[in-house]
Description:
The protein has eleven helices and twelve strands. The chain is of the alpha/beta class.
Amino acid sequence: MKPQDGKMKFIYKDKELDLRVSSLPTIYGEKIVIRILYANSNLYSLDELGFLKQDKELIKKLLKSQNGMILLTGPTGSGKTTTLYAMVMSMDRERKNIVTVENPVEYEIEKANQVNINPNVGLDFTRSLSSILRQDPDVIMVGEIIDEKAAQIAITASLTGHLILSTMHCNDAPSSIIRLVDMKVPKYLVIDSLVLIISQRLVKTLCNNCKKIHTTTKEEMIDLNLDEPKNIFKADRCKYCNYTGYVGRKMVYEMVLLEDKHKQLIMNYEDINKLRKYTFNNKENSLSQKLKNLVLIGLTSYDEYIANLQLNCISKDEINEV
Ligand SMILES: [Zn+2]
């Protein structure tokens, strides 16, 4: 009769999988959603995630910092957690005191201290973070910044000798800054704290066996910013792709190293929401351009382009209203 959330282990083709299971009572019975979390052996390293060489080197360099915040943004299922784990995995866990606070711990990492938040016993993000700070770790990975208090503690910690790695459910760099300011973190603290923002998506790639050539319509030309019609591909269905039209996914990302020009822009705006109209990157490095390129080379479809572009920053309050 009640919705339930839990974890289970499942062995499939000799592979042990961790499953997150959620149930919801509907009028015809229980509706079950299962998320597959890969077991430890399948944790990705930073080298395997598809970052460009120079970007990867910059990330590795920044991961050696003693303070500041590195933020990953994207919707649910965009691979933020995988990237976050890859970052922790790439660190010297022998010498650094690394603590993670998660809801729940999704993968176990050797030589990191992982804390499961447990609201049932009063151990929420805020409480956990405060306790963790008293142990003075070098690096804190916060699964997700979800409310004002967590945001404020995380930002403060990042300015007092801790490197913070975290994620936010946002579209891109500007929307994550707007969100932090919405969470009552003063702008000057946001710009002092944030070092790097990575916005990422996992884009479904078209099945090569059945994808169909298609000439862009007027509407598609406008969305893709094309001057003339172009041949692109769209999904069809066949047995190779299990009649879904897609096989596999590709990470697409945009990386913003917060520079003085961005900081000035943030400080200059009385109404922080106006920041939304900016992308913090030059055009060719922007997420939209990278998504567009994938459509033009036939790796993905227009539908996937739109699905991954039009994702709005959802605040916790909005979720509550739903
Ligand atoms: Zn197919």
